[in-house]
Amino acid sequence: MSERRYKKLKTAPQLKKLLEQHYLAAKYFHLGKPIAWVTSGAPVEIVRALDIFPVYPENYGALCGARGASAAMCQVAEARVYSPDLCAYARSSVGMMSDAKHAPLGGLPRPDLLITCGNICGTVLKWYEAAARHYHAPLFILDTPFIHADDGEPTAHAIAYVAAQLEELIAFLEKQTRRKLSKEKLLATAMLSSEAVSLWCDVREFCRARPSPLNAPDLFLNMAPIVTLRGTKECAQFYRALKEEIAERVARQVSALPEEKYRLVWDNIAIWHHLYRFYNHFVDYGACFVTDTYTGGWAMRMNDQGDPIHAFARTYTQVFLNQSLRVRVRDMADLITRFDVDGFVMHSNRSCKPYSVGQYDIRRIVTEQTGKPGLVIEADHSDPRSYDDETIRARIQTFMEGLR
Amino acid sequence: MENMPQEFWRWKEYNWHAPDIAWRNAKIITAGVDVGSVSTQAVVMVDGKLFAYANRRTGSSSPDSARRAMDCALEETDLALDKIHYVVGTGYGRVNVPFAHKTMTEIACHARGANFLYGASVRTVLDMGGQDCKAIKIDAQGKVVNFLMNDKCAAGTGRGLEVIADLLQVPIEEMGELSLRVEKEPEPVSSTCVVFAKSEALGLLRKGWKKNDVLAAYSRAMAHRVAALLKRIGIEKEFVITGGIAKNSGIVTRLEKELGIVARKPDFDTQIAGAVGAALIAKKMKDER
Question: I need a surface site. Which of A45, A297, B11, B152 has the fewest CB within 10 A?
Answer without folding.
Answer: B152
